[in-house]
Amino acid sequence: MIQAYSCQLLNLEQNSGMTREADDHSGVLKLSAVLADALRQRDAYTRLHSDRVMALANGIGVALGLSGNELHVLELGASLHDIGKIVVPDVVLMKPGRLDDAEMRVMQLHPSVGGDLIAAYEHPRSEPVSKVIRHHHEWFDGSGYPDNLAGEGIPLLARIVTLVDNYDAMAVRRVYQGARPHHEIMQIMESEAGTKLDPEMFKRFVQVIDDPRYAMFKAS
Ligand SMILES: [Fe+2]
Q1: Are 16 and 26 a contacting pair, CB within 8 Å?
Q2: Which range scores top for mean pLDDT: 124-128, 142-146, 216-220?
Q3: How many CB atoms lie within 10 A of CB 25?
Q4: Is residue 53 part of a domain?
Q5: In angstroms, what is the span from residue 52 Cα to ligand 1's centroid?
């Protein structure tokens, strides 16, 4: 079902008579909306989390002066970064506690599953978007997954999503974890800059999260 929807939308984007820019933007939004809605059917938290990650990632992208095309790839990659969780069983996805080793291995499949899902379609944005999804759990020091990429070997847009994904995951209350206050999250992230997180992206994020335009995404 999801593959059929996304294939149709990508084809719509390719065949439309609209201008290229309007066509691309429309296609991105349609694809994002349909796939994100599919994910919401499984897990409302992940859907809302993805919306916040998309907004904050866009803030960093704008601060970096990324091109319109890069921002569109970032928007789609951020919105769909956890789309691979549609294959994670409920007993793991909804578990109200820490995952054991076997469950963690299942959960850790989601970046590659999601990346492969998007990469399956022939479209100019499929490859860069799939890379954002595949690499959003890589660590800056190379100890993440699935490919143990490090530093600038990790696609820039994926490093942005990793950073805001971490912020939002700590900012929102979950069944197994209470929400942390903003100052505590920033202390943790600062301690992880250079190991888990890209230190340069963290500097940008410090500016973005204190911008009043992003106040609604800021932890209390
Ligand atoms: Fe994820």
Answers
A1: yes
A2: 142-146
A3: 17
A4: yes
A5: 13
Q: How far is the CA of 48 from the centre of ligand 1 (A)?
A: 13
- The CATH number that applies at residue 65 is 1.10.3210.10
Q: Residue 33's pLDDT is what?
A: 73
Task: Tell me, in angstroms, the distance from the centre of ligand 1 to residue 133's CA.
Answer: 8
Q: 212 C-alpha to center of ligand 1: Å?
A: 27
Question: What would the pLDDT profile of 8-66 be if each residue is shown by its tens digit?
Answer: 333 333 343 345 555 555 665 676 677 777 777 777 777 788 889 999 999 999 999 99
CA 59, CA 31: separation in Å to the nearest integer?
21
Q: Are 142 and 148 in contact (CB under 8 A)?
A: yes
Interval between CA 16 and ligand 1 midpoint (Å): 32
Distance 137 CA to ligand 1 centre (A): 6
Q: How far apart are CA 199 and CA 72, in angstroms?
A: 23
**What domain range is 146 assigned to?**
44-217
Whether residue 185 lies inside any domain: the answer is: yes
pLDDT at 3 over 60: no
**Signed CA dihedral, 54, 57, 61, 62: sign only:** positive
Could you tell me the distance, in angstroms and rounded to a whole number, from the CA of residue 169 to the centre of ligand 1? Answer: 10
Q: What would the mean pLDDT of 64-75 be, rounded to a whole number?
A: 94
Distance 11 CA to ligand 1 centre (A): 27
19 alpha carbon – ligand 1 mean position (Å): 34
189 domain residue, yes or no? yes
CA of 162 to the centre of ligand 1 (A): 8
Q: What is the pLDDT of residues 82-133, one digit of tens each?
A: 999 989 998 998 888 889 999 999 999 999 999 998 898 777 788 999 999 9
